[in-house]
Amino acid sequence: MTKSLVFAADTLVRFKNGHILIHTTSSPLPAFESESPMLVGWLCQFARPTVAATAIDALKPADRAGVASVVQYLERSGALVEANALATAAGASDDAETMARIHRHLRLLARSFYETACDLLGFGPHADRELMKRSGAGVERRLMALLAASDGLRGELDALRQTYIKPQLAALGLDARGQPHKLHIGCGKNPLDGWVNIDVYPAPLAMNVLWGLPFADSSVQYVFVSHLLEHLFFPRDVKPFLAEVRRVLAPGGVIRVVVPDIEQCIEAYRNNDQSFFASRRETWPWWPENPTRLEDFLAYAGAGAEPAYLFESHKYGYDYETLSRVLSEAGFTGVVRSTYMASGYAALRVDEASAVAKAKYGDRYYSLFVEAKRPD
């Protein structure tokens, strides 16, 4: 027991009928169960890496064998893990494999939270009363525990932002206080040469755009945002995002926004334009087979976004009137409707970099192209 042990991140401590239970979310072994608060209090030192042998040797001789057997059982169950092994595994893990697992877990978590909310609304106060009888902890206490766990993780993630962004800026030869000049936000797999290309991992500048942009006020001349806005919730996330873009744009700086043209979808639906909807699958092979016109239109407009699809699903749909208004409300002026590769600014004739922006039906593009300026 010379190893340094620490509680696994998914270890749970529960209280039931006067007993204290320690288990993980994944172990096939039964939970460790004890009536001794003193023992569980002693085990709490493994919240940080602790050499088990040293900790056990500090006990009275009569207590050592029993406590050692508890530590061994918690190791077998996966509640206690070797601290050095965690660091080694993290270092050796393949990034793609790690992200695939994280993505899978996030999908399950998002769907699980949604279904739990639906169940609780269905049960009403009955769930709280019955759970209180069975465990002494009703719904509210359990929800508070979930919120505390989520807030704890969010707090740790927030603390990582600066040390995560700073080396990326350095690798790109950028200074947060300098002049990045042009931002391509939502670049996907199509970065633009001479631009700062931003998206979720593994983009050149990988981040969540809802963190805020890591650039100084008035330090950017052009911003290109293609098929990103519809993936943000409106207005909760869209308005702060546009306000942040306005902040970093220099006076007279221009934003070019490309989104699905929902007005065109409405027109096709109203006119029963079967060829319009059939062309979607020709343009995008992954498009669902044989959806009804309404299914196609509503999904594209962001109605009923699936929680498990996270950033990927559309959250909202825009016509020119709506997009123009939200840009104006964010403090932009000179809002104009544009067309594919037809910006009045040579630097912003970059729509061809976006596979979705250049998709078309007959002679018409699926997208709506709009530009606006930060006032001089």
Can you describe this structure?
- With 376 residues, the chain is of the alpha/beta class.
- It folds into 3 domains: 4-88, Outer Surface Protein A, domain 3, CATH 3.90.930; 94-168; 174-373, Rossmann fold.
- The protein has helices at 37-43, 52-57, 61-77, 83-92, 95-123, 125-135, 139-171, 238-248, 262-270, 274-283, 293-300, 320-329; strands spanning 4-7, 11-16, 19-24, 32-34, 50-51, 80-82, 181-185, 196-199, 205-206, 220-226, 249-260, 333-338, 360-361, 364-365, 367-373.
- Strands 9-8-7-10-11-15-12 form a 7-stranded mixed beta sheet.
- Strand 2 and strand 3 (19-24) form a beta hairpin.
- Helix 9 packs antiparallel against helix 11 (293-300).
- The termini are far apart.
